Amino acid sequence: MTEHSYQPADHYDRVTRAWGLLLGAELHYGVFEGADEPLDEATHRLTERMAAAARFEPDLRVLDVGCGTGAQARYLATEQGVRVTGITTSSVGVDIARERTAEAGLDDRVGFEVRDGTDNEFPDASFDRVWILESSHLMPHRDRLVSEAARVLAPGGRVVWCDIVRHREIPFLELRDRREEFATLRAAFGDARMEPLASYVSWFEDAGLTVEVAEDLTEATLPTFEAWRTNAEQHRDQVIDLIGESSLEEFVRSCDILESLWREGTFGYGMAAASKPT
Ligand SMILES: C[S@@+](CC[C@H](N)C(=O)[O-])C[C@H]1O[C@@H](n2cnc3c(N)ncnc32)[C@H](O)[C@@H]1O
């Protein structure tokens, strides 16, 4: 796959259904309190941590950038009483999200659209919260994601973000030596680029936002890989039907690679929240 032909939407259109089996209902890492905890509890804990940082109030307007299949949007509408617009570049994601939201009877409070988080085309100041859960690593122009989030926030609004982060520079020679590992990650997870937590803090500040929370979650997210490998074993036949055997093998190998990158201090996980001055 060349850089020019790659579109994140292609990748998510292809993998979204299989991801539901491998990653669970929420398509993101877990924040574990114990290594044996069920994955769904740990992924939901991450959502709850972000919700606490967002300081929701009933009826606020929330933009969910990179909404997956809408699990968090439905949770936020049900548990926090907010109204959510979820956007993703994957039309398959939007189809599944709309179907599940209709089944849950939440259409009046939750909607989904195919839009790009780095150029969302919503009017200025049209949301009270912007929620960016593990989608930023897929966007080449991180500064534009943040400036768009700041633009659509109303004064006094707040953006909450979390994602995979990079803890150190990876020298060119190391990148070259480990190119097969990084190619496997790209094949399994899409064309991602990790940036340090400090860079996100700077982008928020550059966009005129005041950073309120910046937290490292590397250790708490580490058991995620073992949980994903267990899901891969348990749902092997169904996943092969959806994405093929070689993609499943790539996924399992990627869990091993990411786990090593976490343990050696190269990659990890971060969360931040920032507010727009009134
Ligand atoms: C790892 S999933 C996270 C989904 C969801 N937030 C969750 O935690 O369950 C990444 C999501 O980002 C979306 N995405 C990737 N690039 C995007 C972009 N430029 N704009 C909006 N969404 C994007 C993908 O389609 C996918 O829905």
TrEMBL record:
Official protein name in the record: Class I SAM-dependent methyltransferase
EC number: 2.1.1.-
GO terms classed as biological process: methylation
InterPro entries in alphabetical order: Erg6_SMT_methyltransf, SAM-dependent_MTases_sf
Keywords from the named record: Methyltransferase, Transferase
Claim: Methyltransferase is one of the keywords in the record: yes
Stretches of the chain forming a coiled coil according to its record: none
GO-annotated molecular function: methyltransferase activity
Translocase recorded as keyword: no
A Pfam family per the record: CMAS
